[in-house]
Amino acid sequence: MSGLEAGGVIGGALVLLNWVICIVALFVIPKDRKPTAAMAWLLAIFLIPFVGIVLFLLIGNAKLPKKRRERQKEVDGIIASSVDTADYVADRSGWPDWFASIVRQNQTLGALPASSGNRAELFGDYQGSIDRMAAEIDTAQHFVNIEFFIVAWDDTTREFFAAMERAVQRGVKVRLLMDHIASAKVPIHKQTIAELERIGVEWRYLLPVKPFKGQFQRPDLRNHRKLVVVDGHVAFTGSQNLISRDYDSPKNQKRDLKWQELVTRVTGPTVAAINTVFLSDWYAETGEDLQQTAHVRVAEVARDASPDALVCQIVPSGPSFDEENNLRMFLGLVNAAQHKVIITSPYFVPDEAMMYAITSAKFRGLDVQLFVSEIGDQGMVWHAQRSYYEPLLRAGVRIFMYPGPFILHSKHMSIDEDIAFIGSSNMDIRSFLLNFEISMLVRGESFVRDMREVEAGYREISRELTLDDWHREPKKAKFLDGVARLTSALE
């Protein structure tokens, strides 16, 4: 056979293989997948078949490995068993029906109930929030449970690490979880691990990707939660990681990027729920059940009896759950709002349902505002986010651009005068489906007033984007926005 004939045979085989891949993809990809995601994957495979299929095999499955899923079922049982039969809410008589139904939905999906008698304060000062966490660790007598997406030992976190060391020296059990991929890519990661080992913190990776040690799952399924629990009586959660404000990144330092965060300090019964999320993650990664040594029941936590006491509910979400718990809560809140919706999200790449909810709120006559960063730290996500600005502006949504060199990384929402959420969850497809997140739903006018003060501070220094401004954007940038929007649907 001549070289020309051999080339023809190989070419024909490749064409046939391409058709086989496309036909199989039509049967496999749409199953149990949203139409937008299925279309994005099919488009990728049809246009770049061999590259597309490799990508699909690598990141096309949003499920954890079977062993990890089985352990997660045990975790769900642990969560359910840690919930007492008593009603944690002192008085539901003032609740609107829609709020009661969202609370019920959250418990059905995430197992954790709402509780009354809580207090919460907000911290928007980056160093100040870390220092406050360190101060609380210095009060610990029994245990400290810590979980972050990114952990680094640097000048910003040095006192936090020192507080952990002092706690260990007092005989306090200090446990720390960190996401493997996110933390390991920080340049000073080896020094961070060495310091944790030196001071005696018991630490583990979340979702480790170590294929040669039998630890592998889709590499972009990550644990994005941030929380600190001290003795089961005080907790912190929010958007902030345990790292310097520039993420110890030479690229960020070159651009002088600085992250702006919002963290809440919580006391009251909901601390037990935050702690339960940590216990479930610890068990999922280690197989060690800490209920006898680090579990605190709601009845053991002091309640606030003042008029400003808050109703709070912790909502865990992620790829181990059958439903998108956080997305369903956000949709319920926006759809139920009667006067005002203010959303702050650093990575705003909503799905169709969320876009309809936000624009419909505006069509109903509500005051709808969105706070985002004027500049981005992740090019594809930033361009995908921009692709949603025009339909939002046309609907009348006000968009405020937080100025550089700051990256507005806070993640929160305020609804009307007395409902809010704060946590680790972005308003994007990744947080809805691929990342483990923790969200806190709050009902209380005092908390919303405090959040509105934070939002007013954002508004004061931000630039409002108008439809006329948007029309002056370069066509090249809008083209990139559209392309990035297509890739954002690849779940």
Give an overview of the whole structure:
The chain is of the alpha/beta class. The protein folds into three domains: 3-59; 66-95 and 111-310, Endonuclease, Chain A (2-Layer Sandwich), CATH 3.30.870; 325-488, Endonuclease Chain A (Endonuclease, Chain A, 2-Layer Sandwich). It has helices spanning 3-28, 35-47, 49-59, 66-82, 97-110, 126-137, 158-169, 180-184, 189-199, 250-255, 270-286, 291-294, 325-336, 352-363, 379-386, 389-395, 429-434, 445-461, 467-471, 475-488; strands at 115-123, 143-148, 173-179, 202-206, 222-223, 227-230, 234-238, 258-260, 263-267, 310-317, 340-344, 367-373, 398-402, 406-408, 412-415, 419-423, 435-443, 463-465. The strands form two sheets. It has a 16-stranded mixed sheet that branches. It has a two-stranded parallel sheet with strand order 8-14. The longest helix is centred in the N-terminal third of the chain and has 26 residues, at 3-28. The two termini are 45 Å apart.
